[in-house]
Amino acid sequence: QVQLVESGGGLVQAGDSLRLSCAASGRTSSTYAMGWFRQAPGKEREFVAAISWSGGKTNYADSVKGRFTISRENAKNTLYLQMNSLKPEDTAVYYCAADKNPSRSWAPGFSTAYDTWGQGTQVTVSS
C-alpha cells in the first residue's frame, strides 16, 4: 500500500502562484498514474489534473487548463502541481491520489480510478 502526504498549500492573493507536492512511500508509486483532486466547502470533490506513470501523458480539468501544470519525479517518488494565476474559485482542499491500476498508460480524470488518497492540503486564494 502506498502512503501519500501533500504539502505546499497556503493563503495567497489572486494572481499568485503556489506549488503543491505529494510525497509517496510504500509500494512503488512510480508505476502508477497519479492525480490531483480538490474539494471546496459544500461542494463535491472534483478532478484537477492527472499524469500517467511515465509522465508522458497528462490530463487537466478545463477550469485549470493553461494555469496549472502537473509533473512527477519518479526518482524522488514525488508528484507536483504548479498553480499559476490563482483565482478565488481555486480555494479548496487539494488531495493527491494514486491509481488503483498499475502501469496504466494514460491519466484518468475520474476519482473511482484511484484507491489511495492523501490527507489534503488547504489552498486559500483571497480576492
Report what the structure shows.
The chain has 127 residues and is mainly beta. 0% of the residues lie in helices and 50% in strands. Strands 2, 4, 5, 6, 9, 10 and 11 form a seven-stranded mixed β-sheet that branches. Strands 1-3-8-7 form a four-stranded antiparallel β-sheet, with no helix packed on it. A hairpin with a 6-residue loop joins β4 and β5 (46-51). The chain is globular and about 40 Å long. It starts with a strand and ends with a strand. The model has no long low-confidence stretch (mean pLDDT 94).
Secondary-structure blueprint of this entry?
Elements: E1 2-7, E2 10-13, E3 18-26, E4 34-39, E5 46-51, E6 58-60, E7 68-73, E8 78-83, E9 92-99, E10 114-117, E11 121-126
Overall number of strands: 11
List segments where confidence is low: pLDDT < 50 over at least 5 consecutive residues.
none
Task: Please bin the fraction of helical residues.
Answer: under 10%
Largest sheet: 7 strands, mixed
Our measurement of the CA-to-CA distance between the termini, rounded to an integer number of angstroms, reads 40 Å
Q: Shape, please?
A: globular
β-strand percent reads over 45%
Radius of gyration: 13 Å
Based on helices, strands and strand pairing, what is the structural class?
mainly beta
Instruction: Quickly count the helices.
Output: 0
Strand/helix succession: EEEEEEEEEEE
Chain-averaged pLDDT: 94
